[in-house]
């Protein structure tokens, strides 16, 4: 049974190192987009205001969750869009119709997330 304890202790140590490395990479990515993307900076600033506002204005946990989640979703989609754009720029700087289409689709995804945000906040706060 000692071998099992040693194995599980090693597994826990490995998990901790992986979690720390994952957090470090995630924070580095968040810092990257916050420094280079004005839209992300604006969305982060809005979240600082909107999350407490959602918790105050939401009538119950479900409404609060919908208000917060819809606001966070905009930031999430913006970050994925930025990752797509960075990847496309890395592959080639020359213009290609598919590159433009991919960037437009990413931008459209951000628009849809923003419309969902407006719909959630509008419907929940109009009651």
UniProtKB/TrEMBL annotation:
One of its GO terms (biological process) is phosphatidic acid biosynthetic process. CDD domains: DAGK_IM. Mn(2+), Zn(2+), Cd(2+) and Co(2+) support activity to lesser extents. GO terms for cellular component: plasma membrane. Its cofactor is Mg(2+). It is a multi-pass membrane protein. The chain crosses the membrane at residues 40-58, 64-84, 105-124. Substrate binds at residues 18, 39-43, 78, 107. It catalyses: a 1,2-diacyl-sn-glycerol + ATP = a 1,2-diacyl-sn-glycero-3-phosphate + ADP + H(+). It is found in: Cell inner membrane. GO terms for molecular function: ATP binding; ATP-dependent diacylglycerol kinase activity; metal ion binding. The active site is at 78 (proton acceptor). ATP binds at residues 18, 37, 85, 103-104. Its EC number is 2.7.1.107. It comes from the Bacteria. It holds the Pfam family DAGK_prokar. Keywords: ATP-binding, Cell inner membrane, Cell membrane, Kinase, Lipid biosynthesis, Lipid metabolism, Magnesium, Membrane, Metal-binding, Nucleotide-binding, Phospholipid biosynthesis, Phospholipid metabolism, Transferase, Transmembrane, Transmembrane helix. The keyword Metal-binding applies. Catalyzes the ATP-dependent phosphorylation of sn-l,2-diacylglycerol (DAG) to phosphatidic acid. Involved in the recycling of diacylglycerol produced as a by-product during membrane-derived oligosaccharide (MDO) biosynthesis. Belongs to the bacterial diacylglycerol kinase family. This is Diacylglycerol kinase. It comes from Gammaproteobacteria bacterium LSUCC0057.
